[in-house]
## 1
Amino acid sequence: MRFSSLSIICLGGMSLALAGCGQPPEPVFAPSAKATVLVPAAQRLVSESLVENFGTPNKLVAWQQFPINYGAAEPTASDAGRHDEGWRLREGRKLYMVHCLHCHGVAGDGAGPTSRFLNPRPRDYRQGVFKFKSTAGGMKPSTADLHRTLVEGIPGTYMPSFVLLGQEQIGLLADYVKWLSIRGEFEEKLAGGMGKAGATSEELRKSYKDKRESDKSISYEAVENEILDDIRKELPETLTERAQDLTDDWLAGENPENATFPTAKRVRPDAASIARGRELFLSKDVKCSDCHGPAGRGDGPMTEQFIKITDSDRSYDTPGFRDFWGQPIVPRNLTRGVYRFGRRPIDLYRKVKNGIHGTPMPAISNRVTEEQIWDVVNFVMSLPFGGKESASPGEADGEGGEAKVAEAAGS
Amino acid sequence: MNRFWCLFFVASAVLAVVFFYIGPACGWWFPGVAASPLGQQIDDLFYLILAITGVTFIGVHAVLGYILWKFSGKEGKRSDFQHGSHTLEVVWSIVPAGVLLFIALYQMDVWAAFRMKSRFDQEALANPIAEVTARQFEWRIRYPAPGKVLQDTPQPDDLYTVNDLHAPAGKPVVIKLRSEDVLHSFFLPHLRVKQDAVPGLVIPVWFEANEPKAYDLVCAELCGWGHYKMRGQLTAQPQADFDAYMKKLKETQFDDGFKEAADE
Ligand SMILES: [Cu+2]
């Protein structure tokens, strides 16, 4: 193939000439908002511990403490240098830069360049809050859950499916997301802790004013140093504590015992079950319809309320729910048949039973039995079909109906 | 310098011959050999056009070269002025028009085979294997439950996947193409199938993969910033494997997660 190498050289030369040889800017992990409100000295402490323990985008550090498969050195691998210690993390980063960064951002802050145009916004992993998981409440997702999100995508949002990347690459990406989330949560907790200890510029000014009242000679620097000294003294301990907490959290998410599974088989989705489910859906006890509306269209009365802003006594000035990240969110229109968390009965069971972390959707009351949850699920699954009998496997009713072909083609 | 333009045009004719030969011979022109019977016919049409334009191009350049050689300017000799030739203009309008008409008529059969529903394999048309919905930036696929016929509206027992379209190999199959948002185009380069997905329309598209293997499925209509990522795959399988795949899909999709006590 002499011709093709020749033409590649020509084309390469031409495109270089056109594009110029400029280097793209070096990627950086942007600091979290919790860190940027701190006084500069405290900010430095945060960023130094982050660089030491997690590195920079071009020089990642694999903190062995965390339950992540960073990739051990594989000396037998012939592709020189690729399979050094921590190679999985580095490969994951490369893939992330190609496929995810423009939405989820370098630091996993959900603020990539395309994120501004999307609704819902791409996930900010840094609080460690995930919606799509098999675990209950605020628990972390398992690696398999992240895997599943990447394989299926999130229908009805801009999060695409990456199924064609294949198992291995998806595995690398899932681990990198986990690592970014741990890094982000570590930063938020560390900076948040320093903020609580009084190291934000605002708090510092306040304590300076207080101290001045008793001791006129005290200088601003002295107050700052006092607070920072305390923080510095406790820093090593804080770091290990934070890391330990995160390790425990992610290990718990990984523990198969924490994945939610029904203890009863799915109730047959016949008309009776759907009717029972409907009753529960509308009932005072379960109250799905307060949010999802009596017909499941996502227009229940609660969507008209003004919601209080977390950590403040004010409300948002427009009605409607907000999610954990402060973005407007509407209860799903269940008649559309688009299920972001998957359409398997088990997916819907988990959402109804556990609620959806990071959103207002609550876990169902624990007075409800397993069979009743299945009734509700059966009702929800029948909504796109006008509440008629929904599907269950292995039920062949023989008749398929007629194929209608639209008049679009052949003209 | 006198003869430069003459040699230039003759050389470009020679170069054209070389490229017209090595393009198809080295497989540069198309993405691989056509992987479907209709694809081969479509390629043949392209080759026919290549032959016609090739012969014309080379002929024109040969004449041009000859004229430049013969009549290139001589010292002291002035050129004649001519106001044009009516006959010549009629000839060079009618001949290409005739060629175009020939191509238009000649390709109609292939076009009809690809586009006219009456020419589709009627059994495949009555049993579309799936509905493929293009959206920014992926292919959402809905299959009818095994043994059922695809309906225009979603059914409770439909099966859903994304980006990976499975189909039996070695026989014509039909999918119904639609779009959820903007214009997309369903393009199977190896099968030479390309059809725009138009919002509001449901368009039947048929194709036949010769061999059971994975083929690229790409979007061929600039549909937004993520257009380049809108990649899918057509996995053609022997009928038995396809049936097994559908069965597995059905089991997964209706998984209720309940584990019998015996498992524990
Ligand atoms: Cu597209």
## 2
Amino acid sequence: MTTQLSPPAIAETQTPDSVSTPDWAFRATDLRIAYEGKTVLQDVDLNIARRRITALIGPSGCGKTTFLQSLNRLTDMIPRCTVDGSLLLSEQVFKEQGFGDLDLGSPELDVVRLRRRVGMIFQRPNPFPLSIRRNLELPLREHGVKDPELLRRRIEKSLRDVGLWDEVADRLEQTATALSGGQQQRLCLARALVLEPEILLMDEPTSALDPLAAAVVEDLIQSLRDRYTIVIVTHNLAQARRLADDVAVFWVREGTGRVIETGTVAQIFDRPQDPDTEAYVRGLRG
Amino acid sequence: MAEPRSHTQARDFWTATVLWLGAGSVLALLAWILGDLLLQGVGRLSWGFLTEPPSDAGRSGGVAPMIISTLWILAICLATAVPLGLAAALFLTELASRRTGRWVRHSLDALAAVPSIVFGLFGNALFCHVLGLGYSILSGGLTLACMVLPLVVRTTEAGLSNVAQEIRQGAAALALSRVTTLRTLVLPAAAPALLVGLVLGIGRALAETAALIFTSGYVDRFPESIHDSGRSLSIHIYDLSMNVPAGNDTAYATALVLVVLLIASQQLATWGIHRWIQPERSVR
Amino acid sequence: MTSSKPSASFRAAADRCLTVVLVGAAAIAGGLVLWIVLFIARESMPALLSIAPWRFATDASWHPQDGLFKITPMVAATLAISLVAMCLAAPLGIATAMFSSFFAPARIAGLLRRWIEILAGIPSVVYGLWGLTVLVPRIAAIQAPGLGLLAASLVLALMILPTVALTAEAALRSVDEDLLRGAAALGLDRTGTALHVALPAAKNGIFAGLVLATARALGETMAVLMVAGNVVQMPGSLFDSIRPLTANIALEMGYATADHRSVLFASGLALMLMVGLLVALSTMSSPEATDG
Ligand SMILES: Nc1ncnc2c1ncn2[C@@H]1O[C@H](COP(=O)(O)OP(=O)(O)OP(=O)(O)O)[C@@H](O)[C@H]1O
Ligand SMILES: [Mg+2]
């Protein structure tokens, strides 16, 4: 994967005993992402705050998914996708401190360490075609949890966290793909939570669900507020308004996607500065 | 108004008639071949035919040693081609860059087009002489493995690439290792395609003759080890019809056994392909 | 930036190990065809170095034990058999494909495809046996000995018919539906649609299939070996006994030594070259080639 090295200067200025603890989880500076040489996203300067919910909104094809996937380096899976500029993950996010901020552009980056702290939920629920228990057990075992009692406890806890425990406690051995769409999505959330991440990335997590199931999942996301840093892509402006603390508006200008405006939910929805933002949040454009 | 209509109707009628005749004659030919096979082969067929060794140069007795040899050759062929083919298919779907992948695929397509007699030459030179394996079941099986490899790789690859991208993304987002992803998620999902590839490989290997004459040889005794020469069913048919006067009845009976095996494996593969590999194949 | 977990280095090692295995397997599978070519070339080197190339055409006869290597009659035989077989199989195969794509009820079309797939699965040695016992006596009744160009071409035509029919059907099937609807909207009848719209649109795919079938025909061994008569002579009429290249290899490999053996490998190399050219041609003309 051709991920350009960003200058490590910023990473090194952050010392562990830095007094002014940065209150950000991700910091993108002059980020540019291209598929097969064609730039789809550029000039992205964006701070994503810790322990807050940031919504990414904007019309289709403006690079929201692309940006989200660069946050946990899922862009590695796409052949000929290049990311340059600087993208940092704050060291505050890690349990063990003293390594400095993580440079997400570095080719030597330990993606295992990254993805253990950054979970992801996709638009289409994607439970593995295994039993419900195995879906949760697999990532745990993979990351070194072997003790059966501990496994059992953590599986139960994460299922309780997503409100699925009562529904599936007596059929943990059944295949996960037999669950309803909403249940599947909650299982995927549980699967991400079971690794005890600090950050959750969500790509339109409710758009493939019926309204009732979507409401359940949305409530669930509300319940995770303050405990997790959440970055959520959504096309549902009402949902963004209900959930988000901060909002970043993506827009295609001169053929490539950009971030045209960022701010708190009140700023974006009530006092938008950019005319395109204004038209978009009013439902006039995009 | 009625005139041109009846004109086109007449033209369609005649085209249809000609094509019905053409297709019908194809069916008739096939029926003729299969009918002959059945009529001339079934007379010699009996339980003893399958369980006894041949006698009188094959005119009487059975084909038991050939069945054993065929199975051994097949076993060696599959034991080599399936792991190798699976690994190569995994490379193509999981690791290869687009360019490398294209080269490997082109190369496999070329391999699939190599005439079987050339495989025979290659196997004879490499396995029998250079590696010193002589005319043996081992040489024959390895030669066939080279031959069925493209089939196994391409079928398995089709199955592997059908494994949903969402599953792979989910696994990557959880930082599952490549080994775990493959073992617990990708391979189980691709297993049916692998089986279909296996069955197709069996079909191709069972039918092969030219590549075996100069690699596995034609000794018609029970092989004692894989280093012995062994005569496959297909070579037995060839030998009986060409070198043994009045051997045709046994040749037909052997051919019947072989064709039944082949059609069975082929139908199994076809069913499997429609069931698992391209279930949404569109029919116009 | 090493992880604190000891299992991390283990899993990295396992992943690396797997990568090595996969790359190795792919290298073997991908390199095999090249290896075969090089190997056959190596084995044919002695002959190509010690025998002047024109002698394959100018020697008095094919008597390899006496150092006479006239190979042209066998090349001619291979070409003649393939040509006649293609002339028979191409129209019949394309007609079958047209029938099942445009004229047959869906169930009959499906049935036909199944039967043709069975036809494709019958081993060549069985075709040879059938040709030898059924076709040859009937041809011999017209003109003895019956073994020869006609018998070999007929058997071969049957064997490549499935390739032609199945590839042509696939090509016709992939013709853009809109095109056919357009033709129907213009009031074309089925014959017109099939002949003047679908057939031209599918001609690349059909051609690719024909080329592939020719490659099969050139390389076929057992069936022609059993019914061609195997006399080394230039094909003069449909009833002449002839010996194609492949049959020659199969007949003589068992006892050939030295230059003789090497010439057989060289003929194998020539065969591979012809087939390789045809396959390349077929890949270039098939519709998938354009979208690289
Ligand atoms: N794998 C890929 N290869 C090439 N181009 C891609 C790829 N994935 C996305 N793109 C292009 O990148 C641009 C941004 O796509 P992206 O999926 O990030 O948009 P999005 O904002 O998530 O849209 P949506 O709201 O529809 O999900 C689009 O123009 C898209 O066509
Ligand atoms: Mg998206």
